[in-house]
Design a protein that fits this description.
Strand order of the largest sheet: 1-2
Order of helices and strands: EHHEHHH
Helix content: 55-70%
Number of strands: 2
Shape: globular
Radius of gyration: 13 Å
Strand content: 5-15%
Length: 120
């Protein structure tokens, strides 16, 4: 099933702060608890976007769609944890972050929310 994103996932470059890096590590741990295959796929589509030392991420349309395809196979308990993490980061950046940081987490949260609802 194809995942139609609710927001336009244009290519964005964003600097992630330490809290974002910690959130991505939590998300990776959530996926790892789903099993080896999901962990390998999530590492490819999430942590490969960023140089964790520098924190710069460039994400294009193909990356977002690849993430959507990856999370489709994740169970709802895993996705609920990922959704919570992404929502917290979006809220934090929408109040005191950059528009690019907020957009990154908004798109991520949208993909996970649609997968949870069975729309991806």
């Amino acid at each position: 099933m194809e995942c139609d994103l609710m927001v336009e996932p244009s290519q964005i470059s964003v600097n992630l702060d330490d809290e974002d890096k910690a959130a991505l590590r939590r998300i990776k741990q959530n996926y790892e608890s789903a099993g080896l295959f999901a962990a390998l796929m999530s590492a490819t589509h999430v942590l490969s976007w960023t140089d964790m030392d520098v924190g710069l991420v460039t994400v294009g349309n193909e990356d977002w769609l690849g993430l959507a395809k990856t999370i489709i196979g994740s169970n709802k308990v895993i996705l609920a944890g990922v959704s919570s993490t992404a929502a917290k980061q979006y809220l934090r950046h929408s109040m005191r972050g950059t528009p690019e940081q907020a957009q990154f987490w908004a798109i991520y949260q949208t993909i996970v929310a649609r997968a949870l609802k069975g729309k991806c």
